[in-house]
# Entry
Amino acid sequence: MSKKKILLVDDESGFTRLLRLTLPAYEIREENNPLKAVQTAKEFKPDMIFLDVIMPEADGGTIAAQMREDPELKSVPIVFLTAIVSPDEAKTRHQIGGCEFLAKPVSRDQVDACIRKHLGF
Amino acid sequence: MSGEPIHVLLVEDNPGDVALMKIMLAEECDGRVVIETTSRAADAAERLKAGGIDVVLLDLSLPDAHGTEALVRLQAYVGRVPIVVQTGLDDDDVAVQAMQLGAQDYITKGKSDGRLLMRRIRQAIERTRTMRELADQRRRLDALMENIPDRVYFKNREGAFIQVNPALANLYGFDDPQQVMGKTDADFFSDEHAGQARADEEGVLRTGEPIIGKMERETFPGGRTTWALTTKMALKDEAGEIIGTFGVSRDITALKTAELALRGSEERYMRLLNSVTDYVYTVLLEKGHVVSTQHGAGCLAVTGFSPEEFERDTMLWHKIIFPDDRDAVVNMVLSAVKGDAAFEIEHRLVRKDGKIRWIRNKHVPRRDGSGHIVAYDGLMSDITDRKRSDEDLKAAQSQLMQAEKLHSIGQLAAGVAHEVKNPLQVILVGLNYMGDSPLAANGETRSVLGEMRDAVQRANAVVQDLLDFASPRELGMQARAINTLLEKAIRFVRHDITKAGVKVVTNLAAGLPEASVDPTKIEQVFINLITNACHAMPTGGTLTVTTRERVMTPGESPQHDSGDRSGIRFRSGEPVLAIEIRDTGTGVPPEKLNRIFEPFYTTKSTGKGTGLGLSVTQKIIDLHRGKISIENHPEGGVIATITLKAIKPGDRAPKERP
# Structure
């Protein structure tokens, strides 16, 4: 059985790298440039995507909306990672279709549990 | 005539007749007649001019005047001095002629004796005197009629004028009273007034009773109106038969206009006075002591007490002042009694109905001629409504400021959260990574990594508190059982409780009504308070959590609608839920107790708290319109009490608020 493919979109490369290193059970692709996130996703065809919300040049909500419009990506589970949980984000969450939020800082184990829940194993 | 002698001027040219006349009069009058004689008419006129003559005996055959010509010569004195004509002839024509020229009488020489002559003289004198009196009287009456500004008239039974004075003629627009003769009131006044005046006249004609001093509104065709004070009386003939009316009327239009203006002004004043709800009072002083107080009617409107109640209880003024404001008012009174310059204060008073109102109280000293204070006048106005709108404005401003502050704190908090949490994220996953490495097989390394993880969580908690504190307050209200929320909160911090070695005792009342709350926020409140309690007992203790239902008592509920918009909105008699969280720790130093709700204020050592927990807690309770108090318990430790409104049986469960 091949490894599940996880895409991490976050401008904080230290985080993506360390998360990748701590979760060797998955094939993890890091994308630190939010503007390239959709393109990378289309190429990589992940089973699941973790998306930072606040990033320079493009925010997670916009990227998620683009992915939801893409036929190849629209059914891929997206989980937001955010440092700021505010009512505004709750609204955004509704707009982009019930995606889950994880509040930073998250531990490796939380991320692992989240992947297992969404991918059903 | 008895005392004074009668001076007779005998005008006679015949010396024999003169002698005879003197003898006749002397015999009859016993010396009480003084006779002067002259033989010519011209001399007689000269003598009369000099005065002192009571009667003239005039012969009609004088050398300088023949027959009645002598009377013509003396015409100037006719009516003033009686002239008795003597003639030698028994000639009636001459007699009549003489009488027409003004002679009082005539006698025929040789036909009169002394007695007859004397009687004729006396009668002549008497008649002349009477006529003169009548003439004087007539002149006086004419003067009165001509000059009096009052209108005088005489009317016949039909109401037509038979005599009027110029004042009345003028009223009708005529110069000559004659022009009014024969006319009636109907020719001048409006039908309305003429009809009324005629009816009054008919009453007088019928009964003979006068109408005295009646005020009449006289209206003219064309709308002119005058006012008159009128007296109407019956005019009678010699036999006492009523033959008409007469009367006097005085124009009082100017007076009436002034009176109407005065009445209008009085009415306006009364209306003003009655509509003024201010309470005017006067305190009379003598040598610096209050001797009496006068209370205006407005005191009822302002205080609910009547002037009589104030007079019965001389300390009532003091009793009705709101207790906190008494010192200020008493100081004002003391200064007023001393006679200090006018000033005003604003204070509260408790009305008779128990309502608390804001009053502006202003007083002005009153001094006598020598500058001594004799009284002060005060004015109390109810300014509660103004005060309320001031407070509403202040509350709105403060809300706005608060909102702006929160907005900037919110932005700051978001910025801080983003910039702090991302590095924390790297560290946390880094720690996860290191935990996987062979290094972590060492027990000490594992423990170091654990400490670091805790430090990350602490730093994260600070940032999260800041976010909670700054985030916009929107509650999702639901009807919830408080006991369930408390149990959930206790489970949530079970780790802290166990770590601190704290024993938990719960006294949760069964069958409590639900409360309308935002469950997440209230849970956060309970977690904060339980966490604080655990932190207060680092070496163990007992955490007691109690819930119960009770009814708000009048003493606890707000006495009045004060400016305090934050929090307490309970009414006496309302069911409330009380939640007590008590620890057995060291308590809070009293001097710090009143600061514990301030943001960033903490009694804990570094790393144990952010100083925001209780601020957030209080904010949440305020938003629920509840009450929170934190006190030191008499038996040690701290007791936090939260009071929330319970949902009354029958109340609809509140829908979620926007």
Summary: Strands of chain A lie at 5-9, 27-31, 48-52, 78-82, 100-103. DSSP finds five helices and five strands in chain A. The mean pLDDT of chain A is 85. Residues 18 and 108 of chain A are 9 Å apart (CA to CA).
